[in-house]
Amino acid sequence: MSGAEAATLPRGTRLGAWVIDRPLWPGRDGVLLARHATEEDRWAMIEAWPDAAFHRARHRRALTALRSLDHESVPQFLDSGSDHGMLWIASDPGDGELLADLLVVSPIDWRDACSIIVSVARALAAAHAAGISHRNVSAECIVVGADWSARLIGWDLAMDDEALGQAANPPFGPLQYVAPEVIARPLTHGPRADLYALGIVFYETLVGRSPFPAAAHGGDRPEAAARLLELKTRAEPLDLAAHAPPWIGQLVAKATHAQVEKRLPDMDAFLGWIEAASGSWGRMGARPSLPPASRQLAPALPALEPRLAGRSMAMPNREPIGPDPFWMLVAGVGGGIGGLLFTFVVVLVREFGVV
Questions:
Q1: 168 shares its domain with 223
Q2: Are 206 and 113 in contact (CB under 8 A)?
Q3: What is the pLDDT of residue 327?
Q4: Phi and psi (nearest 5°) for 293?
Q5: For the whole model, what pTM was predicted?
Q6: Both 270 and 143 in a single domain?
Q7: What is the total count of domains within the chain?
Q8: CB 159 within 8 A of CB 62
Q9: Which of 70, 167, 307, 355 is the most buried (most CB within 10 A)?
């Protein structure tokens, strides 16, 4: 999120053609809701930074990314400028709540979690195809809509490979989402690190807490990073236990492998895996919209075999599904009738010599 100074902008402050109304999410500094000065039915999300050297780089990165991307899960760029000592970007406000705020209340049903994660993964796949890595994927940067779709915000750390290679000390987001190779070598923060961060978000969405909670309260950042690097490198694969079907656990483990070469190859592979199972988590029938009234887990699903670019990525074995009682009845009745007919034929042969 953006600089704290942005929260001091009072209601009615004008930034270009936009008039500040209020913070978009209470407690989240630097992200504001604004109305157009002459078109009362036009609204915008304003991200604002103090006009200082460090924040100019953030403003420039966000501006480059939003102007480059045209995707339904990425805010649509509207305007930008500099006023009142602030740099700002206006984009469409969309609708929804921050995933981080939702997880304060409870974990999210695994089917709705899939809807959220797929939206974000598609945004990241589009960014990676354009040569841009988000580098700040976290629950704080995901806005969840009433239909459980999502948008990815927080593009002020985004970089392409060229910009990353020229950065002396590139910043990155919250440590709990940062891949081990990035903690060790910040210049390696590319698409596979975004994939790792999304896997951590997936786990957090299903369980309701970070798998590395100490990272959020690590104190001095360099010391915390060193401790977390050792922890993440030595940690066992993330275990979702009963929070989701086994195939999701396998997917999260493959996305968050500590060794980058053993991780899924890219976001398209991640999407191929989860989209192959869309028949199980898609909105079939009525499920509660945001906020959900019930978060009961669905039973395990049948095994699936997604095919990605000609290579099979088999889902883990699932518990077999028991026979349907209706077809058991049909089979029983049919078997009984067949038995009676067979007996009748035998009697005819024995008594009357009928063949």
A1: yes
A2: yes
A3: 40
A4: -85, -25
A5: 0.78
A6: yes
A7: 3
A8: no
A9: 167
Q: Residue 167 is which amino acid?
A: A
What torsion, rounded to 10 degrees, do the Cα atoms 42, 45, 50, 54 define?
-130
> Looking at the structure, do residues 134 and 12 belong to the same domain, yes or no?
no
Length of the chain: 355
Q: Output the six-digit token pair for 166.
A: 């020229």
Q: Which residue has the higher pLDDT, 258 or 168?
A: 258
What is the domain range of residue 67? 4-91
**What are the pLDDT digits (tens) for 212-259?**
876 655 545 677 788 888 888 888 888 898 899 999 999 999 999 999
Q: At what angle do helices 110-129 and 267-276 cross, to 10 degrees?
A: 150
- pLDDT tens-digit readout, 62-100: 999 999 999 999 999 999 999 989 999 999 999 999 999
d(CA 159, CA 131): 8
Q: Do 167 and 248 lie in a common domain?
A: yes
Residue that is written with structure tokens 């602030």 in the block: 86
**Are residues 119 and 220 both part of a single domain?**
yes
The per-residue pLDDT for range 295-354, each reduced to its tens digit, is 333 333 333 333 333 333 333 333 333 334 444 344 444 444 444 444 444 334 344 454
Residues 285 and 301 grouped into a single domain: yes
Q: How far is CA 320 from CA 299, 314, 326, in A?
A: 11, 16, 18
> What are the DSSP E strand ranges found in the chain?
14-15, 18-23, 31-36, 43-50, 77-83, 86-91, 97-98, 132-133, 142-144, 150-152, 159-160, 307-308, 311-312
